[in-house]
Structures are given as C-alpha cells and as structure tokens.
Design goal:
The structure holds 3 protein chains of 3 kinds. Chain A is of the alpha/beta class. In chain A, the strands form 2 sheets. In chain A, strands 1-8-7-4-3-2 form a 6-stranded mixed beta sheet. In chain A, strands 6-5-9 form a 3-stranded antiparallel beta sheet. The model of chain A has no long low-confidence stretch (mean pLDDT 93). Classes of the chains: A alpha/beta, B alpha+beta, C alpha+beta. At the B-C interface, strand 1, strand 2, strand 3, helix 7 and strand 4 of B face helix 1, strand 1, strand 2, strand 3 and helix 4 of C. Strand 1 of chain B pairs parallel with strand 2 of chain C.
Chain lengths: 191, 363, 152
C-alpha cells in the first residue's frame, strides 16, 4: 500500500540529504558552468528530481513559490505544500519560480531586488531538456578563464546580467543534474 | 593595514574549564536541576522566554543554568538557539478573551463581569524578607473555591458600546517580522509591538516611567491586566483546517488613556497594548504605556520631542542582545586600533608642543 | 484504510489539539499501557521547529508577531495506508511520534479503544489540572463591601 502521492517522495533523512543538496546548489552557483547531481527527492511528474530536491532544500513557509505552466498540477502543489509549507504566488511576488523557459514568461515580470536589498529578488529554476557544457561562453566571478553552458535564451540572460547588482539568479535542471547562472556572470555567444 | 594576532587558545580553554567549575559552585551543595529552575524560578524563566522570543520553559531554564543566572546571557543563548529552528509556520492570532485567567484585574471598573481576581500576586505582600523560606521542606497549599467556567470578556468591550473609546478594528494584513527583515523607519504598530514585547524589561520600564514623569505624559489607567493560559492554533496545510499546537501562558495589559481629542480625533479614551510571554506583569504594563506614547502621530497629537515618542530611539535601543553585543565588544582586543590612536595623539602632541615652543622662545 | 470523509474535521481537531497540549509524561504513560503499538512507515520523520505566535494589537486589531514557540511535527503511515500527523508543543520526537500514531489509529476501527484507553483519560487529567488552577483563582476573587459613611 502506498500513501497518497503528495505525502511520499520527501527526504528520508532531511538534515543529511538537505545538506548534501545545499552543498551542490551552492557549488554550482559559485562555479557557473559546473554541473552536479542533485538527488534525494522523488517529486511527482513532471517535476524533475533536481528541481524537486532544490525546492525541498531551499523553500519553507517564508519563500513564495511560483509554479509555471505544465508543472502547476494538483499533485505538485500538494507535494510542495506538505513538504515545505511554501505559499504559492504569482510570478511578480515569487522568491522562487519553477518551470520550463517558455512557460516562465518574460524575465521582466520577476523581482530583481532593490538598491538597498539586492537579495530581494527571484531565483528561477528552469527545467531543461538538455544540460551540457557547450553553447554560451561564461566569464566572471567563480570562473577561471571561461566556462561553457547551454543557455535557453542568451539575449534575455545578458540583459539580466546587465542589471547587476540587481537581477535574477538561475538554476538549470535536467533529470537529476543541475547547473546555475548567477546575475554576476558575463555571457557571450561562443566563438 | 590589518595585523592579525593569534594566540590564547590554551588560556581560553582553561577559562572555559574554570567557568564550568564556577558554574557548579561548591561541590558539597546539591546541583540545581532544570526542573527546579523551571518550577521555582519561573518568573526568571518567563523573562528569558519573553526577551529570548521563544516559548519553551525547559530551554529557558537550561539557559539560566548555563548562564549562571545572568538573564541577558541566558536570553542570548535562547536567541542563538532560536535561529537554528526551521520556521514551521505562523499561528492564528491568539484569542486573549478565551484565556483561562489566573489573574485578572481592572483599575477602572470595580464591578467588571468576571470580577477582580488577584491571582498569585506580590502586590499586597509587605516586602519583608521571609526567613521561613531559608528553611526547607514546606509545601504550601492554596485555598480553592468553586471555579468560573465561562470565559472572561475584555473590559474594553464595555466601553465600546458607548463609542467613547478608540476602536481597534481587525485587520488580516500580514505583519512584518523583525527577525526576518531588518527594521526600517518609519516603522508601524505591528513591528513596534513585536520589538517591545521582546525588548529589555528594564529599558521598556524606564521608557514607560519617563512618560509618567511628564515626558509625553499620556494619563494611563490599567483598564485591564490578565494573566493565564490559552491555546495556540495554527492552520495545517496538509489537513486543510486549524488545530491547537500547544498552550502558552501570557500576560496582557490594556491601558485606557485620557485623551482630549486632536485635530483629527474626537475626545475619547485611547488605548495602549501590552502582550508578553509568561507571567510578566511589569513588562506588559510598561509595553502598553510605551505603545501608547508611540501612537502620537496616528492620533494627531503633538510631537513633544520626548524620548518615548521617538520610534527610532525606542526601537533601536530596546533590544538587550544588540545592545550588549555592541557594548561588550569594546572589551575585546583592539590592539591595532588603539595603536593607531596612540600614534595620532602622540603626533598631535608633538605638533602642539612645537607650536607653543617658538612662541615661548620669542617672549 | 480509513475513509477520510467520514471523520469529522471537528473531532480530529479535538484529539490533535489535545495531543499537542498534553503533558508528555501523562501521554506516554497512557500510551505505554495501550495494547498494541502498530508498525508504520515515516512520511516525514520528526522535526523540531518554531512556530511564530501572533497576537492582535488591542486584542482585536492588527496582527503582530509575538514570538516563537517550539513545536515538533511528523507524519507517518500505518500498514493499511492510514496517514497520521503529529504536531506537538515542545521538542520531544517520541511525543510527536505517539501523537501521529494516535491520530492515525483514531481514523481506523481501533478508534474506540484508543479513545477509551488514551484520549478520554488524558482529557480528564488535563481538565482536572485546569479546574484546579481555576479554583485557586476563584479563591483570590475580591468580594467588595460597601462602607456606608456620613450622617444619612
């Protein structure tokens, strides 16, 4: 007998699994272009393991989450509520937003922080079909020389980087793999 | 230039060991248990819970033991522990009119329904040391009478009918939380109340006393003071309804203040509010007086320039952990800072002496 | 498996609230005496956290944050699939586990026995404690006497 789906699929050993996941999330954010594995959760479809694990690790009753497009299902909503208590929100109010790039909509909708508090901005978790170290060329803090990462929309992400120190930060998830792109990274087309 | 200095590990280690020995005191005296502190020093426990901003009597008792009875140090320990807790959610507002009152008095209405219930108060004691307590073994028993079963209504409810007291209309706006977002000024009443309820009892008392002595006097009566236990209820998302998640003791004070009216408000009674964890009577009365003083703008009163009217002054200095952290840090090594000060003063001295010398030579 | 719809929310609210407020020693003593302790699977293992308690300005006005309290919660599933949640005051993981087990059992045919052997006696003890305090408070209620003064 299995439980109602929204009750299962959480961390079995939350302190240890959340710490491992947090380490991975921090590493990819600190080293843009690096890809790590993120495991520990079994979220309902169509949420990926990496995105689900990020949500369990980063969200709580004080982080507003926006579920964009096809992942905004009853099962995902109930699962997120039971395991994190995070309130659901519109894109403009969200601390975290999850969805595929096309479904997340215009970046202009999301919070980019204020001059006093640049941290009051949204982090977007972008579900991708592929995640590979090829495509755009990245440089800046945390990158020795340059790094490569496949990005869904280079001009939009360049515009976001131009807002620095304001702007959004991004995780890219695919299956159980994750990469990240902070606002501080400079992006150019691969030459 | 910054010069890092290392050293003192052994000295620190030994200091901690000696601290532990001193904490225990003479080994031929029985050691205090957490339960003893919780049960027999309960008002100290209450203060640590209120200012530590965490309701957990056993933890507060442990903190008092660890801090050797230094309550601000104990509050510091509780604040540090509190930051490690994941926030599971927010309760629904407590319904203080449903409190099971141990004590409930009014200085304004003698015959209030529910009556004047004194509870376990120090008020009418003679403040003479009781040397009987120095001897051990007595277990006092309090007399009992047939208890009330119905809830005790708030006194201010009776004034409301006459429209002669300021209303406090309900609002479900989400209040700011100063433990999550840094305080910005001008602030608002919910943030002021949060800051005051966890503020230092001595500081809030001093501020309240200043209003009574004439620095923004607001003519307060204790409309009602009640102490007792009540249930805390929280919405549980996975259940889809609210349940009680526990029961806490609170002290609530509502002042009724004489008010001649202002440009914007008619003559009426105005209100100040105090609500504090545990049996914390002095603190909750003081909180209500300071709350009322800080409402001057909302009521269209004049700013008399009194300290208790100055929101930034009151809220920025009410927190004893912030205050003691900043105060006590100046005793820690500042060798490099001081070295540069020393150089500066020596240089200024040399220059001053050189200015004086040629003059003297000329005379 | 329990038919969730048949259990009134109000009843569940009552027993969950009682378990949350119960003194740990009283609950554990009664539970230890209960006939069988069923096996279960964790859905969310016990977790200690804080809940921000809120009040209202003036008792009725704007909401404000008063301070936190410690709460321990967990969720589990019995072998028949019944889900139980425990939310209890304080930092005791064993108490949260027992509360969740009782919450689950109260939704099964064992409800009657659990009620008689644990819930009812627990409620009685807690009410007796409450009445005890109220009786002491009643004895400190002031009875005023009006003194007649003057000539008339």
């Amino acid at each position: 007998m299995t439980a109602q789906p929204h009750y299962s699929g959480g961390f079995q050993n939350a302190p240890v699994q959340a710490a491992h996941a947090f380490r991975a999330a921090m590493t990819v954010m600190a080293r843009p272009g690096e890809i790590r594995e993120l495991n520990g959760s079994r979220p309902p479809n169509p949420l990926s393991t990496a995105a689900g694990t990020l949500l369990l690790t980063l969200c709580d009753p004080e982080t507003k989450v926006h579920l964009a497009g096809a992942i905004n299902t009853d099962a995902v909503r109930e699962w997120l509520t039971f395991h994190t208590g995070a309130p659901l929100a519109q894109a403009a109010d969200a601390d975290f937003a999850v969805g595929r790039w096309a479904e997340l909509g215009s970046l202009g909708t999301y919070r980019i922080g204020t001059a006093e508090y640049p941290d009051r901005s949204a982090t977007l978790i972008v579900e991708c079909d592929e995640l590979q170290q090829a495509g755009a060329e990245l440089s800046g803090p945390g990158i020795k020389g340059t790094a490569q990462l496949f990005l869904p929309d280079i001009p939009a992400l360049q515009a976001n980087a131009a807002l620095y120190p304001l702007g959004c930060d991004f995780f890219f998830t695919c299956g159980n793999r994750v990469a990240a792109l902070p606002r501080s990274t400079r992006i150019s087309m691969e030459t | 230039m910054y010069v890092a200095v290392k050293g003192g590990e052994k000295a620190i280690e030994n200091a901690h060991a000696w601290l532990a020995e001193e904490r225990r005191g003479a080994p031929d005296i029985a050691e205090l248990s957490i339960a003893q502190i919780r049960e027999q020093l309960s008002l100290a426990v209450n203060r640590v819970m209120a200012e530590g901003s965490l309701y957990d009597p056993d933890l507060a008792a442990l903190a008092i033991k660890q801090a050797r009875g230094d309550l601000i140090e104990a509050i510091f320990l509780i604040r540090a522990y509190r930051t490690t807790l994941p926030r599971l959610g927010y309760s629904n507002p407590v319904k203080t009119d449903e409190m099971a009152c141990d004590r409930r008095i009014s200085a304004t209405f003698k015959d209030a329904p529910g009556g004047q219930v004194l509870g376990p108060t120090f008020d009418y004691t003679h403040r003479l040391l009781d040397f009987k307590l120095a001897a051990e073994g007595e277990v006092p028993v309090a007399p009992t009478l047939q208890p009330r079963t119905e809830a005790t209504p708030h006194i201010t409810e009776f004034l409301k009918g006459e429209d002669i007291i300021q209303d406090e209309p309900a609002s479900d706006a989400t209040p700011g939380d100063l433990t999550r977002e840094p305080m910005e000024f001008p602030s608002n009443r919910p943030l002021r109340l949060q800051s005051l309820t966890r503020g230092d009892e001595g500081f809030v008392l001093g501020m309240a006393y200043s209003t009574q002595r004439g620095y923004a006097r607001n003519h307060a009566f204790v409309g009602e003071l009640r102490i007792g236990k009540l249930a805390v209820e929280m919405d549980i998302p996975e259940l889809g309804f609210a349940i009680d998640i526990g029961e806490i003791e609170l002290t609530e004070c509502e002042t009724v203040n004489q008010f001649k009216g202002s440009k914007t408000e008619p003559p009426q009674f105005t209100r100040g509010y105090g609500l504090v964890f545990g049996q914390s009577e002095r603190k909750s009365i003081a909180m209500a007086l300071v709350d009322r003083a800080l409402r001057w703008e909302e009521l269209g009163e004049d700013n008399l320039g009194a300290p208790a009217q100055d929101e930034e002054f009151v809220l920025s200095h009410a927190d004893n952990i912030q205050a003691t952290g900043f105060l006590e840090h100046i005793k820690l090594p500042h060798y490099v800072d001081f070295q540069s000060e020393l150089e500066l003063v020596r240089k200024l001295r040399r220059e001053a002496e050189e200015r004086i010398k040629p003059k003297e030579a000329a005379e | 498996m329990a038919d969730q719809t048949k259990i009134l929310n109000a009843e569940r609210q009552d027993w969950m609230g009682l378990l949350a407020r119960a003194p740990e020693s009283a609950l554990m003593t009664l539970w230890d005496r209960y006939e069988t302790h069923p096996s279960f699977e964790w859905l969310r293992s016990p977790e200690i956290g804080g809940v921000m308690v809120r009040g209202r300005a003036g008792g009725t006005g704007d909401r404000f944050n008063l301070g936190e309290m410690t709460v321990t919660r967990c969720s589990l599933m019995l072998q028949d699939g019944t889900v139980g949640h425990g939310y209890v005051q304080g930092r005791s993981k064993p108490k949260a586990e027992v509360a969740a087990l009782i919450d689950a059992l109260m939704q099964t045919p064992a409800a009657g026995t659990v009620h008689d052997q644990v819930i009812a006696p627990l409620k009685e003890q807690m009410e007796a404690d409450k009445t005890g305090r109220a009786s002491k408070a009643a004895a400190t209620k002031v009875e005023f006497f009006t003194m007649v003064r003057g000539e008339d």
